[in-house]
Amino acid sequence: MSNFFSTKIEFLKGVGPMRAELLQKELNIYTYGDLIQHYPFRYLDRTQFYKIAELDETMPYVQVRGRIRGKEVLGEGRKQRLAATLVDENGDQLELVWFKGVKWMEKSLKNHTDYIVFGKPTEFNGRFNMAHPELEELAEEKQTTAFLQPVYHTTEKLKAHRIDSKVISKMIEHLLKVALPQVQESLSPELIDTYRLTDKRSAYANIHFPETVEKYNAAKFRLKFEELFYIQLRLLRHKVVRKADLKGQIFNQVPTVTEFYKNHLTFDLTNAQKRVIKEIYGDLTAGKQMNRLLQGDVGSGKTIVAFITMLIAADNGAQSVLMAPTEILADQHYVGLKAFADSLGINLGKLTGSTKAKDRKVLHEQLRSGDMKMIVGTHALLEDVVQFQNLGLCIVDEQHRFGVEQRSKLWRKNPRVIPHVLVMTATPIPRTLAMTLYGDLDVSVIDEMPAGRKEIVTVHRFDSHRLRVFQFIRDQIKLGRQVYIVYPLIEESEQMENYKDLMDGYESVKRAFPEYKVSMVHGKMKAQDKDYEMQRFVKNETQIMVATTVIEVGVNVPNASVMVIESAERFGLSQLHQLRGRVGRGAEQSYCILMTGYKLSKDSKTRLETMVRTNNGFEIADIDLKLRGPGDLMGTQQSGVLDLLIADLSKDAPILQEARAAAQRILNGDAQLEQPEHANIRRHIQSLSVNTVNWSRIS
């Protein structure tokens, strides 16, 4: 793509310095390239005309032809409005109303003249009307005009400065006149031929101003394919380069692992765990740096896989780190693994923000000398003072909670050779999202639960069933169990007055269960207060834990068998699934009760029905992606990779798979893109900024 597209937007006809500044601040549009890729988010169908008799209130924006027969200004002062009557060829009438710009409209609207009227029909007193419709005088030669009209994202601030969708549309119209001759093809002839893609100039022209529905569909497919192709090409190329260039320590000795299997492991591993360990071992013996994502639902046994991987590192003279996002989770990993490490005579340490200074000194010394082979901890592990003799393995739990810079700080703690990396998540990621977010990682999935683990029974109950739910809670506590009650808010706000808030809930629970002790945990508490309350619950000193979503990740209380989620319609599907995973960790039957009012949106009903129907995290993640889109999941809006312009991962999985297969095929045959048939692709990549995350962008 030529330098033409890096021209500053202020030089475009109809923009200028003031508008350019607003477009930069509000829409991140700096250049011609940014503007041509500011695609419409929907289109108004101007291809069909309705008769007035065919209108009904459920219709979106519609188009009607007719003649103005009379207009008058009604009301006084601020309540003034202009009303006009449009009559179609059948003699049916439609009232047109304007509450703003009355004087100007009254002057410009011509009586006894034919117009095309475009707007939202509403019924009032048995008659249809349209408020503030768009008008176009119907000249004889325009009788056959029909098109899809683009609608562009704008903001309130832009609208206040008279830059609405129509003005942006006009800017793009001016841009296309000068830009289309400058557009160069960015895909290879083979790709265009194989996938029957329209050329790039035609794609730009028809995504903004479609000539026909067929040409619009062809433009949309072409631009989506290209966007996803360049993202996948970048990820896969990064993977190829890394595997070629980054050497890894070879860990092929496993005496302690064998000893652990034979004499210390008190349960059988699932087939899925065995398969994953085999995949990891293959990486560790290949002489290349491992970069693997381990996905597995809550309770599927990722931690024991992590420990066995750490044992392999220890058997080969290397140290390993297991980093968790919270102290609670780090403590849980430490307590769970300490007994195994002790039985094998391995020195396992723990380093968190609350580790005392004198203990830190000992830990730092043992890590530097190599006496400590394994350490579990939080962000405290990233401090410069923490140095290793030979760090060979980094395991990061719930890795999306750490920034890229934080993670790379850990890898740099071995200056001689980059450690092997295993990142783990209990948040099931839909396949399309994993391919895009983690396309440069090898992925392992534990898709099987340990034997004997009972499936959590999930039910949906309305607020009117509360007394029955409370009785069920009492019955469970009498059996010696404990209960979580989760609320979406800390304190009531005006906007969300219908939803149960935590403080109110805490008081209600104490009143409802005077015979039991109640803990409370929320995100605004100090860390030590939170830990104190959590520990009381862990030790069964309190029977009920009232909490916000801070308990979503990390708490392992096998005795807690009931999870009540208040105002469950307020939570996303993946979040509900994560919360449910806090119970069902012991041998007893566990329950999740979703409480709501009767007024539920269609999406809320889908979420609740899905939760009741299935415990499969991957199925849930796929439905969640369809409902919410990728931006909210996994904190991906900060990742840069998902800064998609036109593709939609929740809808475009088939295109993504084709684009990835195409990128893989090209790299397999020509990793450096040196062959003549890949000249377009090579030129497109070279034209991009070195730091651009999204290779599908122009600049």
UniProtKB/TrEMBL annotation:
Residues 283-446 form the Helicase ATP-binding domain. It catalyses: ATP + H2O = ADP + phosphate + H(+); Couples ATP hydrolysis with the unwinding of duplex DNA by translocating in the 3'-5' direction. The keyword Hydrolase applies. Residues 471-631 form the Helicase C-terminal domain. Keywords: ATP-binding, DNA damage, DNA recombination, DNA repair, DNA-binding, Helicase, Hydrolase, Isomerase, Nucleotide-binding. Plays a critical role in recombination and DNA repair. Helps process Holliday junction intermediates to mature products by catalyzing branch migration. Has replication fork regression activity, unwinds stalled or blocked replication forks to make a HJ that can be resolved. Has a DNA unwinding activity characteristic of a DNA helicase with 3'-5' polarity. This is ATP-dependent DNA helicase RecG. It comes from Pontibacter akesuensis. The lineage of its organism: Bacteria, Pseudomonadati, Bacteroidota, Cytophagia, Cytophagales.
